[in-house]
Amino acid sequence: MDLVIRKARLQGQEGTWDVGIQGDRIVAVAEHIQERGAEEIDAGGRLIAPTYVNGHVHLDKCNLGDIMRPNRTYSFQECLEITWEHKRTYTIDDIVERASKAIREGILNGATVFRVFADVDSVGGLRSLEGILALKEKWKGIVHIEVVDFPQEAILRDPGTKDLMEEGMRMGADVVGGLPWHEHLDEDVCAHIDFCFELAKKHDKDIHMLVDDTSNPNSRSLEYLAVKTLREGYQGRVSASHCEALASYDEVHAHKVMDLVKNASVSICCNPHISLVLIGRLDQEPIRRGITRVRQLWTKGVNLFSSQDDVNDPYYPFGRNDQQEVAAYLCHTAQMTFPKEIVAVFDFVTVNAARALRLENYGLTPGCRADLNVLAAPTIQHVLRLQQPPLWVIRGGRVLAQNTLTRELRNGS
């Protein structure tokens, strides 16, 4: 075997296990593998898990925080306007350089799959998409990058965007994006969603929209998105991020919408740290948490996943492209701290995210791709508690990254 990981813990299994890897595949999982590997890793009783999947991140904007003017309000409009100031003069090299820094951070933090949103609009034209497609080519064979053709300024309120999105798909975008809640009129919201489905079906691509990213209870694009998914037979191929307005609906209507989402097999992506920063900023007290109805959606069996969204950009001044941090934030904001819930949230950044992106051969059983992390703790609870990066990050059977941690108490402490 090319690589054998010894004495690893598997979630839900007693004792320690060996994992054998040949080429880019897991070929054996057993309490003890007799065969020696060309390379061996001693997990030392630590947990192993599939590498993290970051299913929603805006890398065309990342690390603008180092050069942009200060954000004074953190309103959605000001975030857009600060981005405009840079988007008009983006270069492909600039985008690739800033985004590659975030990709490197993501790898060191255990992620090897990234769904990257690229703005396509009248402000920057196709430059963001060109940059992210170049990023995908640069990292080809190292990590998996999907590119989302994303209308950041909406579609009907930004004339010319339909043509730009059409061209974006011809250029090689992998996913049709959307921002329906940002349209002016309710009928435009529906027309926005209709166009995205038309484009996706034309190119046989999945859909990932940013939906109801507001605390306004009158924002209802998720409901129409779910209905449209059912009508078009697109179940399992649609994801919706944010959906914070759902938390402001009355209970009867909220459950109606959640049931539609479940029946349509729409995956919901919750990005908790961004919601905490941007939603409810005009509230006095009590201030809303900002996230969608995570526990209720989970209880109903909706496929939930969670992602970084923003890294040091006009929308969010922090972010390390760290899915462990994302999961820990969600445990706090959704108050999911019982043992079963902690495990569920960890699934949001691993198996559930992989399901939303329809990744094949993802997991830890023989035949799966050998994409896995040797984590720094023996249980999911302690992985999220300690927030230490994976000791080894393995992609396609090769060690892609290794982290070491040295801590020392002195003076007899």
From TrEMBL:
<dbReference type="InterPro" id="IPR013108">
    <property type="entry name" value="Amidohydro_3"/>
</dbReference>
<dbReference type="GO" id="GO:0019239">
    <property type="term" value="F:deaminase activity"/>
</dbReference>
<feature type="domain" description="Amidohydrolase 3">
    <location>
        <begin position="109"/>
        <end position="400"/>
    </location>
</feature>
<keyword id="KW-0378">Hydrolase</keyword>
<dbReference type="InterPro" id="IPR011059">
    <property type="entry name" value="Metal-dep_hydrolase_composite"/>
</dbReference>
<dbReference type="InterPro" id="IPR032466">
    <property type="entry name" value="Metal_Hydrolase"/>
</dbReference>
<dbReference type="Pfam" id="PF07969">
    <property type="entry name" value="Amidohydro_3"/>
</dbReference>
<protein>
    <submittedName>
        <fullName>Amidohydrolase family protein</fullName>
    </submittedName>
</protein>
<dbReference type="GO" id="GO:0016814">
    <property type="term" value="F:hydrolase activity, acting on carbon-nitrogen (but not peptide) bonds, in cyclic amidines"/>
</dbReference>
<keyword id="KW-0479">Metal-binding</keyword>
<dbReference type="InterPro" id="IPR052349">
    <property type="entry name" value="Metallo-hydrolase_Enzymes"/>
</dbReference>
<dbReference type="GO" id="GO:0046872">
    <property type="term" value="F:metal ion binding"/>
</dbReference>
